[in-house]
Design brief:
Blueprint lengths: L9 E6 L11 E6 L4 E6 L7 H9 L7 E8 L5 H19 L6 E8 L6 H14 L4 H7 L8 E9 L2 E10 L12 E6 L5 H14 L15 E6 L13 H23 L7 E9 L2 H13 L1 H8 L5 H9 L11 E4 L2 E5 L2 E2 L3 H7 L4 E7 L5 E8 L3 H8 L4
Parallel strand pairs: 4-5, 8-9, 10-14
Antiparallel strand pairs: 1-2, 2-4, 3-9, 6-7, 7-8, 10-15, 11-12, 11-14, 12-13
Helix pairs in contact: 1-2, 2-3, 5-6, 7-9
Length: 394
Protein backbone atom coordinates (compact mmCIF):
# COMPACT_ATOMS: atom_id res chain seq x y z
CA UNK A 1 0.00 0.00 0.00
CA UNK A 2 3.05 2.28 -0.10
CA UNK A 3 1.86 3.83 -3.38
CA UNK A 4 -1.26 5.31 -1.75
CA UNK A 5 -0.97 9.10 -1.95
CA UNK A 6 -2.42 11.33 0.76
CA UNK A 7 -4.23 14.38 -0.66
CA UNK A 8 -2.98 17.78 0.46
CA UNK A 9 -4.39 19.17 3.66
CA UNK A 10 -5.40 15.86 5.25
CA UNK A 11 -3.83 14.32 8.33
CA UNK A 12 -4.30 10.90 9.88
CA UNK A 13 -3.71 8.86 13.00
CA UNK A 14 -4.58 5.39 14.22
CA UNK A 15 -4.06 4.03 17.73
CA UNK A 16 -4.81 0.96 19.81
CA UNK A 17 -7.56 1.45 22.40
CA UNK A 18 -8.01 -2.27 23.18
CA UNK A 19 -11.64 -2.19 22.06
CA UNK A 20 -11.39 -5.75 20.79
CA UNK A 21 -7.81 -6.95 21.18
CA UNK A 22 -4.95 -5.19 23.03
CA UNK A 23 -2.14 -3.99 20.80
CA UNK A 24 -4.22 -3.85 17.63
CA UNK A 25 -5.00 -0.56 15.88
CA UNK A 26 -8.72 0.03 16.37
CA UNK A 27 -9.37 3.78 16.58
CA UNK A 28 -8.55 6.22 13.80
CA UNK A 29 -9.01 9.88 12.95
CA UNK A 30 -9.07 11.51 9.52
CA UNK A 31 -8.77 15.30 9.67
CA UNK A 32 -8.82 18.10 7.12
CA UNK A 33 -6.83 21.20 7.94
CA UNK A 34 -9.25 23.15 5.74
CA UNK A 35 -13.06 23.25 5.68
CA UNK A 36 -14.49 20.61 3.38
CA UNK A 37 -17.45 19.89 1.21
CA UNK A 38 -18.80 16.52 2.32
CA UNK A 39 -21.18 13.88 0.99
CA UNK A 40 -22.14 10.43 2.20
CA UNK A 41 -24.38 7.44 1.64
CA UNK A 42 -25.53 5.05 4.34
CA UNK A 43 -27.10 1.64 4.84
CA UNK A 44 -30.70 1.09 3.74
CA UNK A 45 -31.18 -1.42 6.54
CA UNK A 46 -34.12 -0.29 8.69
CA UNK A 47 -32.02 -1.16 11.74
CA UNK A 48 -29.36 1.53 11.74
CA UNK A 49 -26.42 1.86 14.10
CA UNK A 50 -26.13 4.94 16.31
CA UNK A 51 -23.26 6.49 14.29
CA UNK A 52 -25.29 6.07 11.09
CA UNK A 53 -28.28 7.87 12.60
CA UNK A 54 -25.98 10.65 13.76
CA UNK A 55 -24.18 10.83 10.42
CA UNK A 56 -27.41 11.10 8.42
CA UNK A 57 -28.29 14.24 10.39
CA UNK A 58 -24.83 15.81 10.23
CA UNK A 59 -24.19 15.23 6.54
CA UNK A 60 -27.18 17.41 5.64
CA UNK A 61 -24.97 20.43 6.33
CA UNK A 62 -22.68 19.27 3.51
CA UNK A 63 -19.59 20.01 5.58
CA UNK A 64 -17.27 18.09 7.89
CA UNK A 65 -13.70 18.41 9.13
CA UNK A 66 -13.06 15.03 10.69
CA UNK A 67 -14.00 11.38 10.71
CA UNK A 68 -13.55 9.23 13.80
CA UNK A 69 -13.87 5.47 13.34
CA UNK A 70 -13.47 2.46 15.56
CA UNK A 71 -13.43 -1.26 14.87
CA UNK A 72 -14.35 -4.09 17.21
CA UNK A 73 -17.75 -2.71 18.21
CA UNK A 74 -20.56 -1.59 15.87
CA UNK A 75 -22.45 0.53 18.44
CA UNK A 76 -25.64 -0.84 16.84
CA UNK A 77 -28.84 -1.80 18.68
CA UNK A 78 -27.54 0.08 21.72
CA UNK A 79 -30.48 2.47 22.22
CA UNK A 80 -30.15 5.95 23.77
CA UNK A 81 -26.77 5.05 25.25
CA UNK A 82 -25.39 4.40 21.77
CA UNK A 83 -26.43 7.86 20.58
CA UNK A 84 -24.98 9.43 23.72
CA UNK A 85 -21.69 7.61 23.09
CA UNK A 86 -21.56 8.95 19.53
CA UNK A 87 -22.09 12.47 20.88
CA UNK A 88 -19.34 12.00 23.47
CA UNK A 89 -16.97 10.64 20.83
CA UNK A 90 -17.55 13.61 18.52
CA UNK A 91 -17.14 16.01 21.44
CA UNK A 92 -13.82 14.48 22.49
CA UNK A 93 -12.45 14.61 18.95
CA UNK A 94 -13.71 18.14 18.39
CA UNK A 95 -12.00 19.43 21.51
CA UNK A 96 -8.68 17.87 20.51
CA UNK A 97 -8.94 19.09 16.91
CA UNK A 98 -10.29 22.57 17.61
CA UNK A 99 -13.46 22.14 15.56
CA UNK A 100 -17.18 21.88 16.27
CA UNK A 101 -18.70 18.52 17.25
CA UNK A 102 -21.11 18.97 14.33
CA UNK A 103 -18.09 18.80 12.02
CA UNK A 104 -17.05 15.36 13.28
CA UNK A 105 -18.52 12.27 11.62
CA UNK A 106 -18.38 9.05 13.63
CA UNK A 107 -18.32 5.49 12.29
CA UNK A 108 -18.11 2.12 13.98
CA UNK A 109 -17.78 -1.49 12.87
CA UNK A 110 -17.77 -4.78 14.71
CA UNK A 111 -20.08 -6.76 16.95
CA UNK A 112 -23.73 -5.64 17.13
CA UNK A 113 -25.59 -5.21 20.40
CA UNK A 114 -22.78 -4.36 22.80
CA UNK A 115 -22.22 -0.89 24.31
CA UNK A 116 -18.95 0.81 23.43
CA UNK A 117 -16.21 0.60 26.06
CA UNK A 118 -16.05 4.38 26.43
CA UNK A 119 -13.44 4.19 29.18
CA UNK A 120 -11.03 2.94 26.49
CA UNK A 121 -12.50 4.55 23.39
CA UNK A 122 -12.39 8.19 24.52
CA UNK A 123 -8.71 8.14 25.56
CA UNK A 124 -7.95 6.52 22.21
CA UNK A 125 -9.89 9.20 20.31
CA UNK A 126 -8.09 11.98 22.20
CA UNK A 127 -4.69 10.38 21.62
CA UNK A 128 -5.31 9.98 17.89
CA UNK A 129 -6.77 13.46 17.43
CA UNK A 130 -3.88 15.04 19.32
CA UNK A 131 -1.12 13.44 17.21
CA UNK A 132 -2.17 13.19 13.52
CA UNK A 133 1.26 12.01 12.42
CA UNK A 134 0.08 8.76 10.82
CA UNK A 135 -0.84 7.58 7.33
CA UNK A 136 -3.81 6.46 5.31
CA UNK A 137 -2.36 2.97 5.53
CA UNK A 138 -2.61 3.12 9.32
CA UNK A 139 -6.28 4.08 9.14
CA UNK A 140 -6.99 1.28 6.66
CA UNK A 141 -5.51 -1.23 9.09
CA UNK A 142 -7.35 0.22 12.09
CA UNK A 143 -10.81 -0.28 10.58
CA UNK A 144 -10.33 -3.97 9.75
CA UNK A 145 -12.51 -6.59 11.44
CA UNK A 146 -12.43 -10.02 9.76
CA UNK A 147 -10.51 -8.51 6.83
CA UNK A 148 -7.25 -10.28 6.04
CA UNK A 149 -5.62 -7.25 4.43
CA UNK A 150 -6.00 -3.47 4.48
CA UNK A 151 -7.72 -1.86 1.51
CA UNK A 152 -6.78 1.49 -0.03
CA UNK A 153 -6.66 3.00 -3.52
CA UNK A 154 -5.57 6.30 -5.03
CA UNK A 155 -5.83 8.25 -8.29
CA UNK A 156 -4.16 11.48 -9.40
CA UNK A 157 -5.63 13.60 -12.21
CA UNK A 158 -5.26 17.12 -13.57
CA UNK A 159 -8.28 19.33 -13.10
CA UNK A 160 -8.27 22.98 -14.02
CA UNK A 161 -4.54 22.75 -14.59
CA UNK A 162 -3.94 21.54 -11.03
CA UNK A 163 -2.81 18.14 -9.80
CA UNK A 164 -5.64 16.60 -7.80
CA UNK A 165 -5.46 13.48 -5.66
CA UNK A 166 -8.36 11.21 -4.74
CA UNK A 167 -7.62 8.52 -2.20
CA UNK A 168 -9.90 6.06 -0.49
CA UNK A 169 -9.83 3.27 2.04
CA UNK A 170 -12.39 0.67 2.98
CA UNK A 171 -13.08 -2.31 5.18
CA UNK A 172 -15.27 -5.24 4.36
CA UNK A 173 -15.01 -9.00 4.25
CA UNK A 174 -18.28 -10.49 5.45
CA UNK A 175 -21.90 -9.36 5.74
CA UNK A 176 -21.49 -7.91 2.25
CA UNK A 177 -24.55 -7.10 0.14
CA UNK A 178 -25.70 -4.08 -1.86
CA UNK A 179 -27.77 -0.99 -0.99
CA UNK A 180 -25.29 -0.04 0.49
CA UNK A 181 -22.72 -2.78 0.32
CA UNK A 182 -21.75 -3.76 3.82
CA UNK A 183 -18.58 -1.89 4.54
CA UNK A 184 -17.08 1.36 5.63
CA UNK A 185 -15.41 3.53 3.03
CA UNK A 186 -13.77 6.91 3.40
CA UNK A 187 -12.62 8.95 0.41
CA UNK A 188 -10.62 12.15 0.69
CA UNK A 189 -9.59 14.54 -2.05
CA UNK A 190 -7.81 17.87 -2.26
CA UNK A 191 -10.00 18.88 -5.20
CA UNK A 192 -12.35 21.83 -4.94
CA UNK A 193 -15.79 20.47 -5.80
CA UNK A 194 -19.23 22.07 -5.82
CA UNK A 195 -21.45 20.35 -3.23
CA UNK A 196 -24.09 18.90 -5.57
CA UNK A 197 -21.34 17.71 -7.89
CA UNK A 198 -19.59 15.88 -5.05
CA UNK A 199 -22.79 14.16 -3.99
CA UNK A 200 -23.52 13.08 -7.56
CA UNK A 201 -19.97 11.76 -7.99
CA UNK A 202 -20.22 9.63 -4.85
CA UNK A 203 -23.67 8.25 -5.65
CA UNK A 204 -22.64 7.38 -9.19
CA UNK A 205 -19.48 5.69 -7.98
CA UNK A 206 -21.34 3.71 -5.32
CA UNK A 207 -23.95 2.55 -7.85
CA UNK A 208 -21.36 0.81 -10.00
CA UNK A 209 -19.02 -0.38 -7.26
CA UNK A 210 -20.11 -0.79 -3.64
CA UNK A 211 -23.69 -1.52 -4.69
CA UNK A 212 -22.53 -4.27 -7.03
CA UNK A 213 -20.57 -6.47 -4.69
CA UNK A 214 -21.82 -9.34 -2.58
CA UNK A 215 -20.13 -11.91 -0.39
CA UNK A 216 -23.02 -13.49 1.47
CA UNK A 217 -26.18 -11.46 0.80
CA UNK A 218 -26.27 -9.97 4.31
CA UNK A 219 -26.68 -6.21 4.68
CA UNK A 220 -25.22 -4.45 7.70
CA UNK A 221 -26.53 -1.88 10.16
CA UNK A 222 -23.42 0.30 9.80
CA UNK A 223 -22.74 0.75 6.07
CA UNK A 224 -21.22 4.14 5.42
CA UNK A 225 -19.33 5.75 2.55
CA UNK A 226 -18.09 9.31 3.01
CA UNK A 227 -16.20 11.66 0.71
CA UNK A 228 -14.50 14.87 1.87
CA UNK A 229 -13.14 17.49 -0.55
CA UNK A 230 -11.05 20.35 0.92
CA UNK A 231 -9.93 22.26 -2.19
CA UNK A 232 -6.25 22.31 -1.15
CA UNK A 233 -5.17 21.50 -4.72
CA UNK A 234 -6.21 25.02 -5.76
CA UNK A 235 -8.36 24.15 -8.75
CA UNK A 236 -11.51 26.07 -9.57
CA UNK A 237 -14.50 24.34 -7.95
CA UNK A 238 -15.70 21.56 -10.23
CA UNK A 239 -19.15 22.20 -11.64
CA UNK A 240 -21.59 19.61 -13.04
CA UNK A 241 -21.60 19.09 -16.79
CA UNK A 242 -18.00 20.15 -17.37
CA UNK A 243 -15.02 18.16 -18.72
CA UNK A 244 -13.43 18.36 -15.27
CA UNK A 245 -16.61 16.93 -13.75
CA UNK A 246 -16.40 13.94 -16.08
CA UNK A 247 -12.75 13.33 -15.21
CA UNK A 248 -13.42 13.69 -11.49
CA UNK A 249 -16.35 11.28 -11.54
CA UNK A 250 -14.29 8.76 -13.50
CA UNK A 251 -11.44 8.94 -10.98
CA UNK A 252 -13.77 8.56 -7.98
CA UNK A 253 -15.41 5.61 -9.69
CA UNK A 254 -12.03 3.98 -10.31
CA UNK A 255 -11.10 4.35 -6.64
CA UNK A 256 -14.37 2.85 -5.40
CA UNK A 257 -14.30 0.02 -7.93
CA UNK A 258 -10.75 -0.90 -6.95
CA UNK A 259 -11.82 -0.95 -3.31
CA UNK A 260 -14.83 -3.08 -4.25
CA UNK A 261 -12.60 -5.64 -5.94
CA UNK A 262 -10.50 -5.83 -2.79
CA UNK A 263 -13.58 -6.35 -0.62
CA UNK A 264 -14.91 -9.15 -2.81
CA UNK A 265 -11.48 -10.77 -3.08
CA UNK A 266 -11.20 -10.67 0.72
CA UNK A 267 -14.61 -12.24 1.31
CA UNK A 268 -14.59 -14.30 4.47
CA UNK A 269 -12.89 -17.60 3.74
CA UNK A 270 -12.69 -16.88 0.01
CA UNK A 271 -10.09 -18.36 -2.31
CA UNK A 272 -11.27 -16.73 -5.54
CA UNK A 273 -12.60 -13.40 -6.76
CA UNK A 274 -15.60 -13.90 -9.07
CA UNK A 275 -16.85 -11.36 -11.60
CA UNK A 276 -20.35 -12.07 -12.93
CA UNK A 277 -21.12 -10.32 -16.21
CA UNK A 278 -24.63 -10.32 -17.66
CA UNK A 279 -25.02 -9.25 -21.27
CA UNK A 280 -27.89 -8.75 -23.70
CA UNK A 281 -30.43 -8.19 -20.94
CA UNK A 282 -33.73 -6.42 -21.54
CA UNK A 283 -32.63 -3.44 -19.43
CA UNK A 284 -30.04 -2.52 -16.80
CA UNK A 285 -32.37 -3.47 -13.95
CA UNK A 286 -32.75 -6.97 -15.32
CA UNK A 287 -29.01 -7.26 -15.91
CA UNK A 288 -28.30 -6.37 -12.28
CA UNK A 289 -31.00 -8.72 -11.00
CA UNK A 290 -29.61 -11.66 -12.95
CA UNK A 291 -26.01 -10.88 -12.01
CA UNK A 292 -26.88 -10.57 -8.32
CA UNK A 293 -28.89 -13.78 -8.41
CA UNK A 294 -25.92 -15.68 -9.82
CA UNK A 295 -23.42 -13.99 -7.52
CA UNK A 296 -25.51 -14.75 -4.41
CA UNK A 297 -26.21 -18.38 -5.29
CA UNK A 298 -24.53 -20.69 -2.75
CA UNK A 299 -24.60 -23.41 -5.40
CA UNK A 300 -22.69 -21.29 -7.91
CA UNK A 301 -20.23 -20.07 -5.28
CA UNK A 302 -19.49 -23.56 -3.95
CA UNK A 303 -19.14 -24.90 -7.50
CA UNK A 304 -16.45 -22.30 -8.18
CA UNK A 305 -14.67 -23.30 -4.98
CA UNK A 306 -14.79 -26.93 -6.08
CA UNK A 307 -13.58 -26.10 -9.61
CA UNK A 308 -16.81 -27.53 -11.00
CA UNK A 309 -17.97 -25.83 -14.21
CA UNK A 310 -21.57 -26.60 -13.32
CA UNK A 311 -23.22 -24.23 -15.76
CA UNK A 312 -26.69 -25.53 -14.87
CA UNK A 313 -26.44 -23.68 -11.56
CA UNK A 314 -25.61 -20.45 -13.37
CA UNK A 315 -28.51 -20.73 -15.81
CA UNK A 316 -30.84 -21.76 -12.99
CA UNK A 317 -29.93 -18.69 -10.90
CA UNK A 318 -30.51 -16.40 -13.88
CA UNK A 319 -33.85 -18.10 -14.49
CA UNK A 320 -35.26 -17.46 -11.02
CA UNK A 321 -33.88 -13.91 -10.83
CA UNK A 322 -36.98 -12.44 -12.47
CA UNK A 323 -34.98 -11.09 -15.38
CA UNK A 324 -36.37 -11.64 -18.88
CA UNK A 325 -34.43 -14.20 -20.90
CA UNK A 326 -34.80 -16.55 -23.85
CA UNK A 327 -33.59 -20.02 -22.90
CA UNK A 328 -32.64 -21.16 -26.39
CA UNK A 329 -30.52 -18.03 -26.90
CA UNK A 330 -28.52 -18.22 -23.66
CA UNK A 331 -24.74 -18.44 -23.84
CA UNK A 332 -22.44 -18.95 -20.85
CA UNK A 333 -18.68 -18.45 -20.62
CA UNK A 334 -16.29 -19.24 -17.78
CA UNK A 335 -12.97 -17.45 -18.16
CA UNK A 336 -13.72 -17.13 -21.89
CA UNK A 337 -14.46 -20.83 -22.34
CA UNK A 338 -17.91 -21.15 -23.94
CA UNK A 339 -19.74 -23.89 -22.07
CA UNK A 340 -23.31 -23.08 -23.18
CA UNK A 341 -24.49 -22.03 -26.63
CA UNK A 342 -28.12 -21.61 -27.59
CA UNK A 343 -29.11 -22.90 -24.16
CA UNK A 344 -27.28 -26.21 -24.64
CA UNK A 345 -23.96 -27.62 -23.44
CA UNK A 346 -20.91 -27.27 -25.67
CA UNK A 347 -19.07 -30.18 -24.08
CA UNK A 348 -16.25 -27.98 -22.79
CA UNK A 349 -16.89 -28.41 -19.06
CA UNK A 350 -13.46 -29.95 -18.44
CA UNK A 351 -11.74 -27.09 -20.26
CA UNK A 352 -13.76 -24.57 -18.25
CA UNK A 353 -12.94 -26.35 -14.98
CA UNK A 354 -9.24 -26.08 -15.80
CA UNK A 355 -9.66 -22.36 -16.48
CA UNK A 356 -11.29 -21.98 -13.04
CA UNK A 357 -7.99 -22.79 -11.35
CA UNK A 358 -7.07 -19.11 -11.76
CA UNK A 359 -7.35 -16.79 -8.75
CA UNK A 360 -10.03 -14.79 -10.57
CA UNK A 361 -13.03 -16.36 -12.28
CA UNK A 362 -15.21 -14.54 -14.79
CA UNK A 363 -18.71 -15.86 -15.41
CA UNK A 364 -20.42 -14.26 -18.40
CA UNK A 365 -24.00 -15.03 -19.41
CA UNK A 366 -25.79 -13.69 -22.48
CA UNK A 367 -29.56 -13.59 -21.88
CA UNK A 368 -30.36 -13.03 -25.53
CA UNK A 369 -33.16 -10.48 -25.16
CA UNK A 370 -31.66 -6.98 -25.36
CA UNK A 371 -28.57 -4.82 -25.17
CA UNK A 372 -28.17 -3.95 -21.47
CA UNK A 373 -25.38 -5.32 -19.32
CA UNK A 374 -24.06 -5.24 -15.75
CA UNK A 375 -21.25 -6.73 -13.72
CA UNK A 376 -21.20 -7.82 -10.08
CA UNK A 377 -18.27 -8.84 -7.91
CA UNK A 378 -18.40 -11.74 -5.47
CA UNK A 379 -16.27 -14.63 -4.23
CA UNK A 380 -16.45 -18.37 -3.72
CA UNK A 381 -18.00 -19.96 -0.63
CA UNK A 382 -15.82 -22.21 1.50
CA UNK A 383 -15.83 -24.12 4.79
CA UNK A 384 -13.79 -21.29 6.28
CA UNK A 385 -16.72 -18.85 5.90
CA UNK A 386 -18.75 -21.01 8.26
CA UNK A 387 -15.89 -21.30 10.75
CA UNK A 388 -15.22 -17.53 10.78
CA UNK A 389 -18.84 -16.67 11.43
CA UNK A 390 -19.49 -19.49 13.87
CA UNK A 391 -16.62 -18.19 15.99
CA UNK A 392 -17.10 -14.45 15.37
CA UNK A 393 -17.89 -13.56 18.99
CA UNK A 394 -15.56 -16.07 20.65
Amino acid sequence: MSDIVAPKGFRFKAVSAAIKKPGRLDVAVIFSELPTVAAAVFTTNKVKAAPVLDGIKKIRSGAARAIVVNSGNANACTGPRGLADVKATAQAAAEALGVKPSEVLVSSTGVIGLPLPMDRLLPGVKAAASALDGTLDDVARAIMTTDTFAKAASRTVKLGGKKVTISGLAKGSGMIAPNMATMLAFIVTDAAVEAAMLSDALKNAVKYSFNRITVDGDRSTNDTAVILANGAAGNAAIQPGTPDAEKFMKAVGEVTYELSRMIAKDGEGATKLIEVCVKCARNERDAVRAAMSIANSPLVKTAVYGLDANWGRIVCAAGYSGAALTEDKISVFINRVKIVSGGLATGKDAQAAKAMEADEVNITIDLGVGEAEARVLTCDLTEKYIKINAEYRT
